[in-house]
């Protein structure tokens, strides 16, 4: 095994909000007990000031780095987390939890409701980015960490990083929102709505009550295909799939002529249905669509919302990301600067689209590494 990996890791489970101390969700419902799945890498130092919280994207999980015993697939941010990497586990204690409402070990719609013995399904509370962060705070408190060196995440993870920075400013020394926005554009909401409709119009969805019976696999696969297109870029697709006759194989001919990009998307859709819950996708996309930092904390003013923050920021965007374009990052940076917040901003020129933060990206790693070293020296 390579020396720059954290090696074999274990998934852990944090149980909290036991009745009568249930967690209150922003929708007004109370629920408990709850579970968060999480992983940790590196060691917490004596001063407990080297903790880095990783916040995952829409369909991510707590397995951000390393390998499970007997498996050869690494965590989703293996290229960023480990000894000597952008987030150096020789220096930092790294924590990554699966969000509340998810389906990768944390309590969500597919979890069993102890009151009924059946999955929650649509009786699960509508969740927000704020609810995700509130649950994570319970986890961080349980680990005896009073202040996080940084919170970092891309996409939905970036929304959580922003939420952390204004919701619990006293706990955050720095934040690194990557390829994200303070609210969804109408276009982003539109793509999510089409994805949700694909699931809800699958005859097997059964108003969310499909557990222990036929799953809404077709609708969920189509939803993933739609979402996956938004994560890519025209340049990346052109390099991979464009060719004579658009790469059509013509194996069947006529209307059923196959295209490589079509096969690729179908593969992504089918792979997704075997690892994710359709209801969780509905809940999480609604949470991202309802996220609006300015409305929640600034009565519509982004400048006022960031007046609550007291941390340093590193904001990263990608030139080929059309789902969360650089203009949205510039807008948050402008609001931060109007509050005299120390912020570093960089648009990274790369062709992979929104998913650029997940691929091997030396410039991203260097920027994050340098920023973390700086804030850690200051915090020490």
How would you characterize this protein structure?
About 35% of the residues lie in helices and about 15% in strands. The two termini are about 35 Å apart. It is globular and about 65 Å long. It has an 8-stranded mixed β-sheet with strand order 1-4-8-5-11-12-13-14, with helices on both faces. The protein folds into 2 domains: about 10-185 and about 290-380, Rossmann fold (3-Layer(aba) Sandwich), CATH 3.40.50.1820; about 190-285, Orthogonal Bundle (Rna Polymerase Sigma Factor, Chain: A). By secondary structure, the chain is an alpha/beta fold.
Give keywords.
380 residues, alpha/beta, Rossmann fold, Rna Polymerase Sigma Factor, Chain: A, 2 domains, eight-stranded mixed β-sheet, two-stranded antiparallel ribbon, 14 strands
């Amino acid at each position: 095994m390579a020396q720059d990996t954290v090696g074999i890791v274990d998934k852990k489970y944090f149980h909290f909000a036991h009745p009568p101390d249930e967690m209150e969700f922003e929708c007004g419902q109370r629920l408990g007990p709850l579970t968060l799945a999480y992983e940790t890498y590196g060691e917490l130092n004596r001063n407990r000031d080297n903790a880095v919280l990783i916040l995952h994207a829409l369909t991510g999980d707590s397995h951000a780095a390393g390998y499970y015993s007997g498996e050869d697939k690494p965590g989703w941010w293996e290229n960023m987390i480990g000894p000597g990497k952008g987030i150096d586990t020789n220096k930092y204690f790294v924590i990554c939890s699966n969000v509340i409402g998810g389906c990768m070990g944390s309590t969500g719609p597919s979890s069993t409701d102890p009151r009924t013995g059946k999955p929650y399904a649509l009786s699960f509370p509508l969740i927000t980015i704020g609810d995700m962060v509130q649950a994570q705070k319970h986890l961080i408190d349980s680990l005896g960490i009073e202040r996080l060196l940084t919170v970092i995440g891309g996409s939905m993870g970036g929304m959580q990083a922003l939420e952390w920075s204004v919701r619990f400013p006293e706990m955050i020394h720095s934040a690194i929102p990557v390829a994200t926005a303070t609210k969804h554009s109408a276009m982003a909401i539109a793509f999510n709505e089409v994805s949700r409709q694909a699931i809800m119009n699958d005859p097997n969805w059964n108003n969310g009550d499909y557990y222990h019976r036929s799953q809404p696999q077709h609708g969920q696969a189509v939803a993933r295909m739609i979402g996956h297109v938004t994560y890519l870029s025209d340049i990346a697709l052109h390099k991979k799939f464009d060719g004579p006759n658009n790469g059509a194989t013509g194996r069947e001919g006529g209307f059923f002529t196959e295209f490589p990009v079509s096969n690729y998307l179908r593969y992504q859709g089918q792979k997704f249905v075997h690892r994710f819950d359709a209801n969780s996708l509905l809940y999480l996309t609604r949470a991202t669509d309802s996220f609006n930092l300015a409305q929640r904390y600034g009565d519509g003013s982004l400048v006022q919302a960031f007046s609550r923050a007291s941390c340093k920021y590193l904001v990263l965007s990608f030139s080929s990301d059309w789902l969360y374009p650089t203009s949205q990052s510039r807008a948050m940076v402008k609001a931060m600067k109007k509050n005299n917040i120390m912020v570093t901003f960089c648009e990274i020129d790369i062709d992979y689209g929104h998913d650029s933060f997940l691929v091997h990206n030396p410039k991203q790693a260097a920027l994050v590494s340098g920023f973390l070293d700086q804030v850690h020296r200051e915090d020490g």
